[in-house]
Amino acid sequence: MNAPLLLPDRDTITYPESDGLPIADNTLQLQYIFVILGGLDALFADHPTVFVAGNLLWYPVQGNNTIRQAPDVFAAFGRPKGHRGSYRQWEEGDIAPQVVFEILSPGNRRGELAEKFAFYQRYGVEEYYVYDPDRGILLGWQRQEDQFVEIVFMFGWVSPRLGIRFELVGKELELYRPDERKFATYAELDKSWQKEHAERKQMAREAALEKQRAEEQARRADLESERAEEQARRAEEQARRAEEQARRADLESQRAEEQTRRADLESQRAEKLLVRLRALGIDPDA
Q1: 50-53 and 137-144 beta bridge pairing
Q2: Paired sense of beta strands 58-59 and 87-88, if any
Q3: What is the radius of gyration, based on Cα positions, of the chain?
Q4: Whole-angstrom Cα distance, residue 180 to residue 240?
């Protein structure tokens, strides 16, 4: 009688964290992997339940460490950020990565590509994108029920899950965030940062100059205001003096009129006296 077949305990199975293969076969492939990985990481930096990874072994079936793939880049929505040695789906709420990217190299074989396609289709990937940078070929598939359906027009395509837009300029793949910022290499980002930094410094210098101009204009305005106040004060003083002079002139005029009135009275009295003297037979001229 044959001995019963003993299956290994699931808890004792080892799930390797590396498949022994390089991340990329050449620098061009590696560059695109890093650009997509870094771009998605930045895009979802403020989303605590979007996990983005690159070249991480994904085990979809507990108890079988031979069923696995290491996508160049994938995004798993509904999973927390954090470091992992591998993506064991049964430890991730049984959530499969929804979006997968593969960047091809000249060494990729048709059989390998077909195997990956079948794996991602079988184990629940919603969006699958393949880019061949050497030939400038961009392909994409979207899940409909249990099957991948090819996306016919990839140029200008916007990922339903990621919200990013795909463009192919010549042979070069360009990805754009919903805010129209382009995914870029570190060197491009650094150059852009340096440009923005220089522009900010220039803006700061211009703002400082504008502030100085405004302060100078305010100082001049204060001086003009002080001068105007001084002129107004002098005008008021001159008006006061003019009023005083006019008042004095009025007093002098009143005095002169009073003197004239008195002189007239004296003249009238003298006339009356002469009349009386003559009436008395006295010659005032004798």
Answers
A1: unpaired
A2: parallel
A3: 51
A4: 72
